[in-house]
Design goal:
With about 80 residues, the protein is α+β, with helices and mostly antiparallel strands. The chain contains three helices and two strands, in the order ααββα. The protein is flat.
Length: about 80
């Protein structure tokens, strides 16, 4: 009951804030914003490489990684089917 009383005002404030055009402007700038992540280097426990890409580039990178993983899983499953 107490949780419902604290969450309801938060939704009311969120619904009242801002105009309709502000989110569109922020999403365009967010898409161009650089996001940097540290990637561990193979063969070292301490070394890490900093990689910076835009949100769109990270999304594409992860999409390709998922596609490659799914392709490997499909190929592995196909090779194990009884003949």
């Amino acid at each position: 009951m107490a949780l419902a009383l604290t969450v309801a005002p938060a939704f009311a404030v969120q619904a009242q804030s801002g105009s309709g055009q502000a989110p569109a402007a922020t999403t365009a700038s967010e898409a161009d914003k650089q996001i940097c992540k540290k990637e561990k280097e193979t063969g070292s426990r301490l070394a890490a490489k900093k990689v910076c890409r835009t949100k769109a580039e990270w999304d594409e990178f992860y999409r390709l990684q998922r596609a490659e993983t799914e392709q490997m899983q499909r190929n592995d499953a196909a090779s194990k089917t009884p003949k």
